[in-house]
Prior knowledge:
The structure holds two protein chains of two kinds. Chain A is α/β, with parallel strands linked by helices. In chain A, β9 (229-234) and β10 form a beta hairpin. In chain A, 40% of the residues lie in helices and 24% in strands. In chain A, α5 crosses α6, α5 packs parallel to α7 and α6 packs across α7. Chain A has helices at residues 2-9, 53-60, 88-97, 106-109, 116-126, 132-145, 162-174, 192-209, 220-226, 244-249, 254-261; strands at 15-24, 27-37, 42-46, 68-74, 80-82, 99-102, 180-184, 212-216, 229-234, 237-243. By secondary structure, chain B is of the alpha/beta class. In chain B, 26% of the residues lie in helices and 17% in strands. In chain B, α1 (21-36) packs across α2. The termini of chain B are far apart. Classes of the chains: A alpha/beta, B alpha/beta. The interface between A and B is medium-sized, with 24 and 19 residues.
Amino acid sequence: MMDAYRQNHDDGPLLRAAGISHFYGDRIGCRDVGFELWPGEILGVVGESGSGKSTLLNCLSSQIVPIAGRLSYRLRTGETADIYDLSEAERRMLMRTDWGFVHQNPRDGLRMGVSAGANVGERLMAVGERHYGNIRGQVTDWLGRVEMDMDRMDDLPTQFSGGMQQRVQIARNLVTGPRLVFLDEPTGGLDVSVQARLLDLLRGLTNDLGLSAVIVTHDLAVARLLSHRLMVMRRGEVVEQGLTDQVLDDPQHAYTQLLVSSVLQT
Amino acid sequence: MTAPRTSPSQDDGYNFAYLDEQTKRMIRRAILKAVAVPGHQVPFGSREMPLPYGWGTGGIQVTASIIGLKDVLKVIDQGADDTTNAVSIRRFFAKTAGVATTEKTDEATIIQTRHRIPEMGLGDDQIIVYQVPIPEPLRWLEPRETETRKMHGLADYGVMHVKLYEDIAKYGHIETSYDYPVLVNDRYLTAPSPIPKFDNPKMHGMGALQLFGAGREKRIYAIPPFTRVASLDFEDHPFEVQAWDQSCAICGADDSYLDEVITDDQGGSMFVCSDTDYCQRRVAAGHKGAGDA
Lengths: 266, 293
């Protein structure tokens, strides 16, 4: 993975956010957030509930257009696009080809009324694939990569456990070979053994594919395991950012120190 | 313009064709817009009609707005001229507009239909009015109206194929057999109303103007004459229409849409044309079916 990381490094950052601010009336969603995300890099965003993590993620994935700030993204063509200036059609296209969004609750990211296979194949059909055999082949391949049993392919997600639903959601997002994935608490609500397997899977996939990702979590263990760099948020603002190990092992800001010390030590 | 003539059979208690003139103008404006943007659903102020939703309130309002004194009206329900819905609506217009009615497809200038397109080809001097229960083809996949409108605006129709995919995964072929989604003029995804997919190819390049009215959902849409209408499919699972091993027991037709009619309590049945006018014409021309009925 490190090879791919270095290889892409010369081209400049994949995503560059500057001065992202969003308010809900008088309340702060997030304020003046800026960072650069490089190809193959995984950025963790941690902080307690209500610290603005999800608002930030929604701004970054352009589901919310923030009140202020710029977000530029380097397209596959090499050009840099200002995300908030794109038309709705262009944003949707980007969202389903080059980007992925994994919701905390699989019900928000899946169509619960259609089979797992159809869920995974939807993006392919949305970008114009019209050959059933080809779609089926890619769906099979991807369900295999997220370690799903093939005989569950035509079952509804409602018949799956939470962990399996999350796997389907991940496959559904990765099927078009995106370069950037947003993950919102991908392991929230799962028991620890399922969490561990899902984290292994995510780490393997991001390494193999050289994916860039922004992962929002309140679980420092998840952040340590997956992310290269870490951003700590509090009351809508970034209070500290740096390499993951550096932030977690030598926290500088009082809030980060509190956060790190509130994890049970074994 | 002369004032509407009152024919002997017309009931003076109603305005011509039941609806008041302002309502008809409003509906005509919606129809004009619908014709200008083929396949696009145009909202209109649907009125209460003297029949329940689901019985053709949309179709009847469209017909009322376009019908004139010289028009000849044919009404069919599942292809038949003699079923309750068809008889009632035909009588409704005979009474409120005093227009001539017919059961013959080629004599009609306006054909209001529920769930079928006549077997006989329609010409450019005719108009076919469909009764539509659910005008939104994406409704079962996306419940939010705001979102489906956006999807139409962006021609974002990939999800419709998800439904077809689901059919093939479950049954090995596309099981959807009525209200089979079509793409009109290479742009708008459109519900053809619950006609069997057998009739879908007839919509393509049809000479007649096709108008669709959904009363409860308050939408009108249209397919102008000679417009491209394509049924969605996959490259390796192309669109196919229904076929029968039987032919019509009455007229022997093997090219028309057949209904299975139960004839006794022992499981006996026969297949007959759903289009009664087509069947009777064939019988009159000397064709005979194998049925002993």
